[in-house]
Design goal:
By secondary structure, this protein is mainly α. It has a domain at 3-170. The protein contains twelve helices and no strands.
């Protein structure tokens, strides 16, 4: 189950089963939490709570592997909180929102202190010409954005489940709306970053299989956001596929070397097909890319034949 499964087509937040057993492939992180450099991350750093992490040294500050380890340590705290919320004693809204604010601050503080040398956006393409360096930074930024969205979903599922069970009154709508918007914005940023990388580095292919779930979840949340509108227009649907284009192309390229990426690609295409986006996939993806995607998700004919009768 993905965190974004808690969103349904009508724009409600699904909380019938709030178990966060696979928060964006938590198992992958715990068993294989390292970059291409081979540095192992320390997911056990620190304990659940509000205490701060040790300051990174000047060398670690500019080291992608050290920053990746620090980010995944913050993420591990988010995962532990989510599991305790899902399986432990019911958590009150005030506690959930306080924990959300605390973990959000951890993520923001990490992001604010990331040196410009580890950025992707705003840098000339020639600066990141080496695939290994770009792969490291791409993974770091995707996991930051995905962790932020995961935190939002875990918090909302906890607060809204408490209300559904009658444990507490419904959460204030403006707070729910703000967290939902935060979640959607960070998911969309994953897709925008994927498009930027595709534009500036068209031959780049990550070998980090774990980022596949970040890309898939970003697509799923973005589609959910679109269907918060009563009747999404043709242009809105087309814009959504255009936004997801980079992520789909990257999943397609990764599918050639990584079976789990092929699985996420198939799930993404089935999701878009089920919501009536197939014709836009055909329009916006070049034939050779579509062939790669179709190879993993099914046959091209199957998808193309399904465009008949799909809503515009």
């Amino acid at each position: 189950m993905y965190l974004s499964d808690y969103f349904d087509r009508q724009g409600r937040f699904l909380c019938a089963d709030a178990r966060m057993s696979t928060l964006s492939d938590e198992g992958d992180l715990e068993s294989d939490g390292k970059l291409e450099t081979g540095h192992q991350t320390d997911l056990a750093l620190g304990s659940i709570g509000t205490e701060t992490f040790p300051r990174l040294s000047s060398t670690e500050l500019y080291d992608p592997a050290s920053q990746y380890a620090r980010l995944l340590s913050i993420r591990a705290r988010i995962l532990r909180f989510a599991h305790s919320w899902a399986y432990g004693t019911p958590v009150g809204q005030r506690q959930a929102f306080a924990a959300y604010a605390s973990h959000r601050q951890m993520l923001r503080s990490w992001r604010d202190n990331l040196p410009v040398e580890l950025e992707i956006k705003g840098r000339p393409p020639a600066v990141l010409g080496q695939a290994a360096q770009l792969a490291e930074l791409f993974s770091i930024h995707l996991w930051y954005l995905s962790s932020y969205s995961d935190l939002c979903v875990a918090t909302l599922s906890t607060a809204l489940e408490a209300a559904r069970r009658g444990f507490q009154a419904a959460a204030p709508p403006h707070i729910v709306q703000a967290i939902q918007d935060d979640c959607v914005e960070h998911a969309a940023e994953i897709l925008r970053l994927s498009n930027l990388v595709l534009t500036n580095y068209p031959t780049f292919v990550s070998r980090d299989r774990r980022i596949s779930v970040c890309l898939y979840q970003a697509i799923r949340i973005t589609v959910w956001d679109l269907f918060r509108h009563p009747s999404p227009s043709t242009e809105m649907k087309r814009s959504t596929v255009a936004l997801a284009r980079g992520a789909l192309v990257h999943l397609g390229a990764m599918a050639e070397v990584c079976p789990s990426s092929a699985c996420r690609l198939g799930e993404s295409l089935r999701l878009l097909e089920n919501y009536g986006f197939t014709q836009y996939l055909i329009d916006l993806l070049p034939p050779e890319v579509f062939d790669v995607l179709s190879k993993a998700a099914g046959t091209k004919d199957d998808l193309s034949n399904d465009t008949a009768g799909q809503p515009g």
